[in-house]
Design brief:
The structure holds 2 protein chains of 2 kinds. Chain A is mostly beta strands. In chain A, strands 2, 4, 5, 6, 9, 10 and 11 form a 7-stranded mixed sheet that branches. Chain B is mainly β. In chain B, strands 2, 4, 5, 9, 10 and 11 form a 6-stranded mixed sheet that branches. A 5-stranded antiparallel sheet of chain B has the order 1-3-8-7-6, with no helix packed on it. The termini of chain B are far apart. Classes of the chains: A mainly beta, B mainly beta. Chains A and B meet through strand 4, strand 5 and strand 10 of A and strand 4, strand 5, strand 9 and strand 10 of B.
């Protein structure tokens, strides 16, 4: 069964550094999402992306964050200048287009644990 | 924006008993309500979902009910098993033009005692 994949599984960085988290969504999916989960807390929506543009973003997704689909398969989240409070698990998810059947189900990747020192 | 509250935060049941987790939401425009199971260190996985035009949905031992008027929905797990132990998240989503903004609840840590 197709799965969403993410790399790296764990990223350690110094405060102020830029990081890029990578995701490969399921191949026939057209809607892509990033979430974060601080240890022991709930999953928080960051951004949704469709047709090469952001369709929705949360207040967490400020100017330090950006997303990109650089080619036909990858979907990336960039944090320009990391802060200590950016330490969290970052999940990518994807879903099919439309509003029918199970197409609105979001499939999550295994996550990237980001540690900012 | 949407606010989803979830109760209880922890729940312990004996194997074979039922477990009920309740959620409320604030935005009447929310029209899709998924439930996710997250095992320790793993990704959230959808276990059941319900749309706003349906009041109840069942899948084997799992059922979800939705009361749109009261803006609350619940997850029911019957005949619980040790492998049901995990954190369960409810979520409310506004599905518009195909994309979703999903707001998660704070999670319920379910422990099924053998």
């Amino acid at each position: 069964e197709p799965e969403v994949t993410q790399t790296p599984s764990h990223q350690v960085t110094q405060m102020g550094q830029e990081v890029i988290l990578r995701c490969v969504p399921i191949s026939n999916h057209l809607y892509f999402y990033w979430y974060r989960q601080i240890l022991g807390q709930k999953v928080e929506f960051l951004v949704s992306f469709y047709n090469n543009e952001i369709s929705e973003k949360s207040e967490i997704f400020d100017d330090q964050f950006s997303v990109e689909r650089p080619d036909g398969s990858n979907f990336t989240l960039k944090i320009r200048s990391t802060k200590l409070e950016d330490s969290a698990m970052y999940f990518c998810a994807s879903s099919e287009a439309g509003w029918g059947g199970r197409s609105n189900e979001q499939f999550f990747g295994p996550g990237t644990r980001l540690t900012v020192l | 924006g949407e606010n989803v509250e979830q109760h209880p935060s922890t729940l312990s049941v004996q194997e074979g008993d039922s477990a009920v987790i309740k959620c409320t939401y604030s935005d009447s425009a929310s029209n899709y309500f998924p439930w996710y199971k997250q095992e320790l260190g793993k990704r959230p996985q959808l276990i059941i979902d319900i749309r706003s035009n349906v009041g109840e949905k069942k899948d084997q031992r799992i059922a979800v009910t939705l009361n749109k008027t009261a803006k609350h929905f619940s997850l029911h797990i019957t005949e619980t098993q040790p492998e049901d132990s995990a954190v369960y998240f409810c979520a409310a989503s506004i599905h518009s033009g195909g994309y979703q903004k999903v707001t998660f609840g704070t999670g319920t840590k379910l422990q099924v005692i053998p």
